[in-house]
Design goal:
The chain is α+β, with helices and mostly antiparallel strands. Helices cover about 30% and strands about 40% of the residues. Helix 1 packs across helix 2. The longest helix is centred in the middle third of the chain and has 28 residues. The protein is globular and about 50 Å long.
Length: about 220
């Protein structure tokens, strides 16, 4: 099963990336590295911090412990608590009604933004395969490659994946999408564990039309 999956990745990466040249990896090498990286990463448990910003101020912080189900390989999140702040500081019955309405709107928008992020991340093999014919590869600043994909989830969106020349693994994903016809940006940064395994260390999603930003940090990986 694992060999079939690696072969599937191999074909996909060749189609998507067309990677050639001394400073870049072959499709087979990249596929094998990514398959092995994902396999190793699922053996870890880590902490996740999710911060909600509205109108430039931190409004809520949530903590969770993340591990992976050994049978399905799916992510399992166990909430560890949260802190929150009021959206306004006014008092009185009218202001209280306004605050309740604003809080409801913000909560709804948070749900919409979280759902949109979930459509893009984690990267979906089938969606990437479908987008293969719409991709192009260019050299990345500092070495490595940048793979640019359009219409990944919705018409008019774009996604750029940057691959490190050193690790031969993805180190950044930049997504330009939209919600209610207003721009949304998603920026994912990757870091390496001491043994070289890469993981998504931070994700920042911004919906400026709604003054909303979500920051997700993955930390403290351990077995």
């Amino acid at each position: 099963m694992k060999s079939i999956r690696i072969a599937h990745y191999s074909l996909l990466i060749v189609l998507l990336f067309g990677i050639v040249g001394e400073a870049q990896v072959t499709g087979n090498e990249y596929a094998a590295r990514m398959a092995e990286n994902s396999e190793h990463l699922r053996a870890y448990t880590h902490m996740r911090k999710t911060e909600i910003y509205w109108r430039g101020k931190l409004r809520s912080t949530q903590f969770a412990q993340i591990h992976y189900d050994p049978t399905s390989g799916r992510e399992v999140s166990e909430p560890l608590g949260s802190t929150s702040d009021n959206t306004t500081s006014h008092s009185g019955p009218i202001s209280a009604m306004i605050t309740k309405k604003v809080a409801g709107d913000v909560k709804e928008n948070i749900g919409k933004l979280v759902a949109l992020v979930g459509e893009y991340l984690p990267l979906n093999l089938d969606k990437l395969s479908a987008a293969a014919t719409r991709s192009r590869t260019t050299p990345a600043l500092g070495g490595g490659s940048m793979i640019q994909i359009s219409d990944y989830v919705q018409s008019g969106d774009s996604m750029a994946l940057t691959m490190s020349a050193q690790s031969k693994l993805t180190n950044q994903v930049l997504i330009a999408s939209s919600l209610e016809k207003k721009p949304v940006s998603i920026d994912v940064e990757y870091k390496s564990l001491p043994n070289g395994i890469v993981y998504p260390s931070s994700t920042v999603a911004k919906w400026e039309a709604k003054n909303l930003e979500i920051r997700i940090s993955n930390i403290e990986y351990h077995k």
